[in-house]
Structure formats: structure tokens, C-alpha cells
Design brief:
The chain folds into 4 domains: 8-133, Response regulator (Rossmann fold, 3-Layer(aba) Sandwich), CATH 3.40.50; 147-310, Rossmann fold, CATH 3.40.50.300; 314-390, Orthogonal Bundle (Helicase, Ruva Protein, domain 3), CATH 1.10.8; 400-439, Orthogonal Bundle (Arc Repressor Mutant, subunit A). The chain is built from 19 helices and 16 strands. It has helices at 16-28, 39-48, 65-75, 90-99, 111-133, 147-160, 176-185, 204-212, 229-232, 248-260, 286-291, 297-303, 319-334, 344-352, 358-372, 385-390, 400-414, 419-426, 430-439, and strands at residues 8-12, 32-36, 53-57, 80-85, 103-106, 166-169, 194-198, 213-214, 226-227, 237-241, 262-264, 271-273, 277-282, 306-309, 341-342, 377-378. It has a 5-stranded parallel sheet with strand order 2-1-3-4-5, with helices on both faces. A 5-stranded parallel sheet has the order 7-10-13-6-14. The protein has a two-stranded antiparallel ribbon with strand order 8-9. The protein is elongated, with a radius of gyration of 31 Å. The two termini are 47 Å apart. The structure holds adenosine-5'-triphosphate and magnesium ion. Magnesium ion (MG) binds at residues 176-177, 241.
């Protein structure tokens, strides 16, 4: 969705002609423009106007474009900078990027090249703005507005209007327990208990006595009678987490409770009537366990009256940004610190990461980063190596030319402009490097 008001751009160049051409082009595209013929005027305008992007020439009489770049970087972290220059040299490009220009455009450039560079800068701005403006509205205490989550919310409201059993499937950390609670607390049984039971974490015999309770003397150590989870949950909801981990013997017993709505306390022949809704969850595909004979089909049918599948985080387009905003705010508050933010590059890595542990992993990561990072901005270097290196680049909007250009500039920076070393790193000979520098207009003025 395009915002109604397009970005405000400040054009800085000592050539009136260039300023006019640029602003005309930008106005044609609907951008709001401001202009200055020198750095001092530009700094004044920056102080008075709300700007999004600065396009500045490098060489100007008086203060140079680099000083302007530095001023913007030091004072306006949310403004993007594009550097242009008519005297391209490696040093200039490297300096511009090092000082903090977001991109570099050598003159002469075509209108198309200009708009492309602006398009990339604006896209970056909008992403950043989205993080800052993210509304953390919560549905059933959950964050997320993506299509698959909308479907989940609809299912939660349907399920909470009934007493039917619900089976929740989804990868680990996708929010299965949260959804189970949401269904219970949105239902008419909300004032009755919600009793979570981790079926995978309790050994077989113990699980039985925990679920169904026992009478005094039922087994050695049963010194007094105790109610089980089913009785505790009477009138409310029992949440059987990791249901796939129950033994076949336990499944038979559960089936009986479901059929008869009765539980037998261990050591007693007298059944007790219970009215309990069962919400169960698993991160395994139960239907395939049924096929393998590990899970009883009849129990599966009874548990799976309403089935709800939670999407993994990587399929929840747009939700990561909402969750980031929510979690950064939450953990910063917990630490009594000012809200921490992510740098552009760090944000990009978060958006592209695969998130095998889903929301739980995202939550732990942000918690740790908020605690460990001392500065207000969390940078790429603060991220664990596995995140930094595992990103698959999702945006494929660059030409091979552009990638080559950027890579050469980066390599040159890293080897302090030593062309022999640069050629080695790039795996080409010096002659080829010279040709490429020429092609990319990166050769020295000399
Ligand atoms: N939509 C959401 N908004 C905010 N927080 C969420 C959301 N979904 C899950 N969480 C949080 O993520 C964490 C993991 O959620 P939960 O325990 O419900 O997942 P799970 O699917 O049961 O995971 P596991 O399979 O590991 O048991 C919890 O801290 C939960 O509060
Ligand atoms: Mg869970």
C-alpha cells in the first residue's frame, strides 16, 4: 500500500542547473522537494523540515558533501542519503559509503538510474517506518495481522463459541498453548479452570494418576486421596499438550473418558462424572501417526472435532515486524531502559531469517539482545553469527552490474584501496580489475 503523501527529499548541489533538473524529475514522480546550493543552507533546512531523503553532491565550494553526510548520520538516523558526484574515484566512493551515505550515484546518471536509487532508498525508509509505526494491537493477547493469523483468530472465535474438542497442530514455538488459553478464556467457561498438562514430560504411570487422581491406599505412597487434573478442570478446559507422546494404553483410558464423560480414580470402582472440554496440541502430524499405528484413530477423531493449524513464523508475512516492535518495547520496559531499536541491516536479517524455533526463538533472541546490547540501536554485529550468516537474501531487485559495483567498493574498502590485494580477493588479475574500475567509473581522477 502506498502512503498518500510521498517522501520529502532535499536536493543539495552547487549547480543550479542540476538542482533544477533533479527537483523537476522528483516532482514529476510526486515527491515533495526542497533544495539548497550549499551545505550550510542544507543543514538549516534539515533543522526546520521533516525530511526523508537527502541527495547531495560531493564537491561543493565551502563545506563538502561528506560533511553533510556526517551531519545527517549524527543527527537524523532515519534520513537516507544518496551521494552524487561528477568526479568519481575509488576514494570518493569509499569515503562516501564509509561516512554513511546509503548509496552512491556517479554523474552523469540517467533519469532511470536516479529513480532506481531513490526507489531503493524509499523502500528502505518505508520498512523502517513500518517498524516505528507498527501498531501492536492484540487479538486474544496475540500479535499478528497476517492472513494465516486472521484465519487463526476466526477459528479461535468459532471454537470458543462451542464446547467441542479442539486439536491444535503447529511447529514448536508457534503459539499452541497461547491459542489453547485464548479459546478457553474467550469461551463461556472462562471462569472455570484451564488446566495444562504436558503429556510428553510426565512418565506413563505418573501421568495416569495425575490425570485421573487416586484414592487413599490405591498404591504404596498414596497416603491420602487426590483429585486428578480432569476433576480439577471440571466445568472448564484441560489442555493436553504433546498428546502424540502418550502411550497406546493411556490413549485407551483417555478414549474412555471422552466417550463416557466419566473418570475412575485409581483404586476406586466408582466413576465420577466430569464435564471437561479437551484441547490437545502436538507438533507432530497425528494423522501420519495414526497410519503408523502409534496413535489410535478413534481417539484422534474424538480429539479432532475442530482442528486448528498454526502457521510457522516464516509464512506470516508482515508479522515479524509487529512482533519485533512489541517485543523490543516489552523487554526494554522490563529493563527500565529506553526502547531499543534495530538498525536497517539488523532488521533485514530478522526479516530474512528462517526462524526454526518460531515465536519462542524470536522472543528469546530479542530478550537476549535487549539485555546484552549497550547502545540504543541493535546492530548486525550484535547478532549471533548463525543469524548473520544464514540469511538468504530475499530481495532480488539488483542487477548483476549493481552487485558487482557494490562488491568492488566493499572489497576496496576492506583492503584499504590496495588494488593488488583487491584483485586477489576478487579472484581476478590486476588488468581485469582495472577494466572493471573503468567500467564502473571507479578509477582515480589521476
Ligand atoms: N501471536 C503471538 N503474539 C505474541 N506472543 C506469542 C504469540 N504466539 C506465541 N507467542 C509467545 O511465544 C512463546 C511460545 O508460544 P507457545 O508456548 O504457545 O508455543 P507452542 O506452540 O506451545 O510451543 P512448543 O511447541 O514449544 O510447546 C510464548 O512465550 C508465547 O507467549
Ligand atoms: Mg507448548
Amino acid at each position: 500500500m502506498k502512503p498518500k503523501v510521498k517522501e520529502a527529499i532535499l536536493v543539495v548541489d552547487d549547480s543550479r542547473n542540476t538542482v533544477e533538473i533533479l527537483t523537476r524529475n522528483l516532482n514529476k514522480q510526486g515527491y515533495r522537494t526542497f533544495s539548497a546550493l550549499n551545505v550550510d543552507d542544507a543543514i538549516k533546512i534539515l533543522g526546520e523540515m521533516e525530511l526523508d531523503l537527502v541527495i547531495t553532491d560531493l564537491k561543493m565550494p565551502g563545506k563538502s558533501g561528506l560533511e553533510l553526510v556526517k551531519h545527517v548520520r549524527d543527527n537524523y538516523p532515519n534520513i537516507e542519503v544518496i551521494m552524487i558526484t561528477g568526479y568519481p574515484s575509488i576514494q570518493d566512493a569509499v569515503k562516501a559509503v564509509k561516512t554513511g551515505a546509503d548509496s552512491y550515484l556517479p554523474k552523469p546518471f540517467t533519469e532511470e538510474e536516479l529513480l532506481k536509487a531513490i526507489g531503493i532508498a524509499v523502500e528502505k525508509l518505508r520498512k523502517k517506518k513500518k517498524l516505528n509505526d507498527a501498531v501492536t494491537e492484540r487479538y486474544y493477547g496475540m500479535i499478528g495481522e497476517s492472513k494465516p493469523m486472521q484465519k487463526v483468530y476466526r477459528m479461535i472465535s468459532k471454537a470458543s463459541a462451542t464446547r467441542a474438542n479442539v486439536l491444535i497442530l503447529g511447529e514448536s514455538g508457534t503459539g499452541k498453548e497461547l491459542v489453547a488459553r485464548a479459546i478457553h478464556y474467550a469461551s463461556s467457561a472462562k471462569s472455570a479452570p484451564f488446566v495444562p498438562v504436558n503429556c510428553g514430560g510426565i512418565p506413563g504411570e505418573l501421568l495416569e494418576s495425575e490425570l485421573f487422581g487416586y484414592v487413599k491406599g490405591a498404591f504404596t505412597g498414596a497416603n491420602e486421596s487426590r483429585a486428578g487434573f480432569f476433576q480439577t478442570a471440571d466445568g472448564g478446559t484441560i489442555f493436553l499438550d504433546e498428546i502424540s507422546e502418550t502411550t497406546l494404553a493411556m490413549q485407551v483410558k483417555l478414549l474412555r473418558v471422552l466417550q463416557d464423560k466419566m473418570v475412575y480414580l485409581l483404586g476406586s470402582r466408582k466413576p465420577q462424572r466430569v464435564d471437561v472440554r479437551i484441547i490437545s496440541a502436538s507438533n507432530r502430524d497425528i494423522s501420519s501417526l495414526v497410519k503408523q499405528g502409534i496413535f489410535r484413530e478413534d481417539l484422534y477423531f474424538r480429539l479432532n472435532v475442530i482442528s486448528l493449524e498454526l502457521p510457522p513464523l516464516r509464512e506470516r508475512e508482515g508479522d515479524i515486524i509487529l512482533l519485533l516492535k512489541y517485543l523490543l518495547n516489552k523487554f526494554s520496559k522490563e529493563m527500565n531502559s529506553k526502547e531499543k531499536t534495530l538498525s536497517d541491516e539488523a532488521l533485514q536479517i530478522f526479516l530474512n531469517y528462517y526462524w526454526p524455533g518460531n515465536i519462542r526463538e524470536l522472543e528469546n533472541m530479542i530478550h537476549r539482545l535487549v539485555i546484552m546490547t549497550e547502545s540504543a540501536v541493535i546492530n548486525v554485529t550484535d547478532l549471533p553469527a548463525f543469524m548473520r550468516y544464514s540469511t538468504a537474501q530475499k530481495t532480488f531487485d539488483k542487477t548483476l552490474e549493481q552487485v558487482e559495483h557494490e562488491h568492488i567498493v566493499n572489497v576496496l574498502t576492506s583492503v584499504h584501496h590496495n588494488k593488488t590485494k583487491a584483485a586477489q580477493v576478487l579472484g581476478i588479475d590486476r588488468k581485469t580489475l582495472r577494466e572493471k574500475l573503468k567500467k564502473h567509473r571507479l578509477e582515480n581522477g589521476e
